[in-house]
Amino acid sequence: MRITTFWKKVRRAFFLLLLLANHFAQSQTPRKPDVITLRDATKLEVLIQEVDENVVKYKKLTDPEGPLFSVRKTEIASIKYGNGDVETFEAVLEVPGYYAPNAPKASAPAPSSTAVTPKARFQEELQAATPDRLRAVYKYYKGKSKGGMIMGIAGTSAGILVAAIGTGIVASATDANGNFKSYQDEKRAIRGAWMMIGGFAGAVTFGTVGFVKAGKNGSKATRVRRELVKRNEPITFRISPAFNPVNGYAHLALSLQF
Using an 8 Å Cβ cutoff, are 35 and 79 in contact? Predict the structure, then answer.
């Protein structure tokens, strides 16, 4: 009878924990994106980080923890901030350095009717980047992927370990007939049950976040690697000095990784 009452308390506590987690998730309102409208009618939904005198720095909406990008104010027609404020920018007339009467006027590109997906935009940025920039981006996403993998493995392992300890405490608090040996054992069993719930919840939460982060950044690192291989550029290179004591010659060794 006491065991039945105890497990009812555990189930109530578990449902209460789920309700609190659901309330916490719904109470958090994400930041609304900022919309940058370029002079060619292209719209960028981003998270603006800093506005300088000549440059607007932002991060992608799909990758808020990723690298920082920038666009010149001369290329921007207007900015609609997440709080509803709108800022417009006047066009700057550039005076040419020479007069070419027969030069045809370049027509502005027609705005695309279809929205560009984040994956396609990321690929376009890779194709326009320099090899040094690609190597830096590859190193960044590779490190983020490893960090996510470590977080997933460590979080899952720690959560399972805590849950296992809690299970052992609950099992040791009962006798051969399944009854509590004493009131102190019942209190120990309650603490063990909380450890079971917290361990499983932690394993699922940190494991899911870590592995998703590892997969997402690993996929981006793979695409950067393919672009470097396509250009026949090394992913990493290292120059190290070397000395031959036999003939007394010193030289530099170049190590490339493709």
Answer: yes
Whether residue 47 is contained in a domain is answered as yes
Residues spanned by the domain of 125: 117-226
* Whether 65 and 151 share a structural domain: no
- Cα 32 to chain center, whole Å? 18
* Region of residue 232 (phi > 0: left; psi between -120 and 50: alpha; otherwise: beta): left
Round to whole Å and give the CA distance between 124 and 5: 62
Instruction: Give the number of C-alpha atoms closer than 13 A to the C-alpha of residue 148, restricted to the C-beta side.
Output: 19
Q: What token pair was written down for 241?
A: 């000095």
Neighbours of 160 (CB within 10 A): 15
* Cα 234 to chain centroid, rounded: 25
Q: Which of 47, 73, 91 is the last residue of a domain?
A: 91
Residue with tokens 């020479």: 98
Which ranges constitute the DSSP H helices of the chain?
2-27, 118-128, 131-172, 183-230
Q: In this structure, what token pair is assigned to residue 146? A: 């490893």
Please give the residue that has the higher pLDDT: either 104 or 78.
78
Residue 36 vs residues 3, 71, 75, 159, 233: alpha-carbon distances, Å? 62, 10, 10, 43, 34
pLDDT for residue 153 is more than 90: yes
* Long-range contact pairs involving 90-96 (C-beta distance under 8 Å, separation at least 24): 91/39
Q: Which residue has the tokens 């805590």?
A: 162
Q: For residue 150, name the pLDDT band (cuts at 50, 70, 90).
A: very high
